[in-house]
Amino acid sequence: MRPPICAICSRDSRDHPELKFDWVRFSDFEAIEGPGHPEGLEWFCADHLEQARRMKDFPMKEAIQKIREEEN
Asked: Which domain range does residue 25 map to?
């Protein structure tokens, strides 16, 4: 699994220990067995977490694109 790095702003929990990070599981989530990072599961910082949670019914790449569009 990847360390907590926000999929939107790329802030890293190792550089920002005061910032909360959490997973969001999207509609295209596929569990894997063994090492690696599952598709459809991504980290978000506290500043982007609620937006990501609202988009959880979309495929991950589409959701991230929509959040980035909202940011601009």
From this structure: 21-71
